[in-house]
Structures are given as structure tokens and as C-alpha cells.
Amino acid sequence: MISQQLNDSITRVGPDSAAGAVLRCYWQPAALIEELEYQNPAPVNLLGERLALWRDDTGSFVLAARKAEAGEPSVYHPGPEQIEAEPGGAVYPVVEKKGVVFAYLGDGPVPEFPNLDCFRADDSHVFAFKGLWECNWLQALEIGIDPAHASFLHRFLEDEDPDEGYGKQFRDQVANTNIPMTRVLREFPRPQIEVDETNYGLKITALRHLENGQTHVRVTNQIFPEAICIPMSREMTITQWHVPVDDETCYWMTMFTSFRDPVNKALMREQRLEEHVLPTYAPLKHKGNHYGYDPKEQESVTYTGMGLDINVHDQWAVEGMGAIQDRTQEHLGRSDVAIIRYRRMLREAIAALDRGDRDALPMQGEETSGIIGPLSNDTIAPTANWSGASREADLERRSGCPWDASV
């Protein structure tokens, strides 16, 4: 457990907050380009600031502070005629990456982008989407760096045909086997977890030791300050930011990256629009309708009884903690090692900024553009050489990629 003062310092995101100062040292995914199809200018609510995004006469993106009405809700979509730039307000640097507009809201030097797979893949191999969660960004991030939760929260009680699971996480077979990923998670729920610090954040390895000297290796990553990179299937990864709207609301902003075939963007968008409403990208399942809970489904299909979309399972878990999780009452255990290590990194970054040492933060130096990957996959490997075999499986996948995925 931690003190209330510390919990406030690592969760609050306003301009004068400790964690907010760290987040403002990095590019933040502000909006999907497609949002300008609904409203131009479009409202952007980011890090507690009310902004407007539009294209100017040259086609360039502009992000500026906008006038906000008294009592305006954090997720509010006024019509274009109601959106006005704040006279004399800040205008922020923006960059478009694979259908997402990134913004830099900080002072000082603008950082480089790391050369992550989601940024260097061909446009045809990346699909972006987002969704709204009514909770603080940190608890949204922390569920993504907890490898053990998938065996319970996302437990499927029956295995469906993997060929019908395109665009859905955990619905594939484990690489080089005919074992459904859902079965591995269900039958081996308590992984051994190893965490390594990297130049981008954390590499998190979950080991589920099977029979006959074999181990299922699942490598995921925390990309500082608020992103994760995880395997979605044998051929696709997810890079997902947990973007603060304000202290009590956030968006998950995700880039799906394919190593082999072009992404079926129309299908993946259709799948996600079945669960979300535009233009807010709010989920159709929420606290007001009990996240679609069905006790009959829970009896034989899923652990939660809340449908097959794992985003709904995560949403229920993180929103159920309250708008800002009360960490003064928590008791972390062995499986929370990645959460513990991440909080230490965040606190060290806060302390570094307090003493004026921004260079001590991850991905703030000249070497940032040289950060590539990261490795993120599922595979079955000999227990005696799981680390080397996992890397070889990743290199094999990259070697046949139509875009430059070399590491």
C-alpha cells in the first residue's frame, strides 16, 4: 500500500501535477484522423486541457487551446460551430503517424519518436482505433502490464475455431502448435513472471511451463510512460497508449500492426464499432447496463459473462476500482512485479524532473530514434532455452515481413 499523497502524485495529470509533468515530456496520441470526418474542427480533451484539432488551408493539422464552457463535461463533443480557439492560447506541435495525430504539450525540446514497429510498418499493415474508459489512466495501464490477469479475466471456457478469430486477441493458436491460446491461459493460470528494464521501459516475460520440457513464452512490453506492446496473434501486435483525458477519464488508443498480410481495416473497424458509439468512442457496454452481464454465458462461455470482447472485461475491472484507484488499501503480490517496477520508474522520473534532470527519463536522448521493435510474441519453446528460442521465433517472423521489420 502507498500513501494518499503518493497516489495523487502518480495519478493526477493537470499542468501543475507531478505525473502530468512527466507525461508532457512525451508525444501523446491526441486523436484519430478519422475524427475530423465527423467534426472539423474536432474537440480534443487531453491531460486535463481543452483543445481543438483542425486542418488549415494547406491541409496541415493544427492543435490549439479552445474556449471551454463552465461545467463542460470532460468528454464533450460540441458541434464545429461551437468550437472556438482561445485567443492567445497555446498552439501545440503535432505529427501524424499511421492515422493518429500525436501532440506534444510540454516545454523544452521536442523528443524524437522511437522507431517502433507500429510507426515503421507500411500504412497498409497498421490499423488504429480507440475507446473511452471512465477511470484514471494509471489503473488502465497497470492491467495491461499484469500478465496473470488474462488467465482469469479473459478466461474462455470453450475454444472456438482460430480461423474465425481474426482481429480478436487470444483467439489464435500458439505459434508452431495446434494449441489454442485460450486453452493455454485457462489451464496454466499462474505464470512465472520476469521483468527486465530496457531503454524504452520494461520487457515483461510470462512463462507457463507445460509438459515434456516445453514452456509457453509470452513477451509483452511497457513503453514509457503509458503505452504497452503485446502480441495479439501470431501475425499481429497491439501497441496501446492509455491517454489521460483528465484525472478520472482516459482513452485507450491502439495501433494494430501486422507482420505478414495487410490489415483488413474495414473488418477490424466494423468489429470495434459493434462495441462503441461515435463520435465519443464510448463503449456500448458500461456501468449503466452492467457491462452486458449474462449469467447463462458466465456458466459455460466466459469467466465474466460479459461477452467475447476482452476490452469489456478490462473496462469492467479498471472502472470497478473507482475513478482513481485507492492504492492506500492495496496489497501487491508476486504476480504484480511489473506493476511494482513500473511505479518505481514513474517515481524516479518524477524525482528527476524535480531536480531538473530531464535527460534521466527514458527515451529523452539522441538515441531514442534508434529504439526499434520491441519483441512481442507468443511461442512454445524448450524450457532449457526459452529465451533464445523466443527471440528466434520473433526473428523468423520478421524475416518474412514485407516491410522492414529487422532488428
Automatic annotation (TrEMBL):
Keywords: Dioxygenase, Oxidoreductase. SUPFAM superfamilies: Bet v1-like, ISP domain. GO terms for molecular function: 2 iron, 2 sulfur cluster binding; dioxygenase activity. The keyword Oxidoreductase applies. Residues 108-358 form the LigXa-like C-terminal domain. CDD domains: RHO_alpha_C_DMO-like. Residues 382-407 are annotated as: Disordered. This is Phenylpropionate dioxygenase-like ring-hydroxylating dioxygenase large terminal subunit. It comes from Shimia abyssi. The lineage of its organism: Bacteria, Pseudomonadati, Pseudomonadota, Alphaproteobacteria, Rhodobacterales.
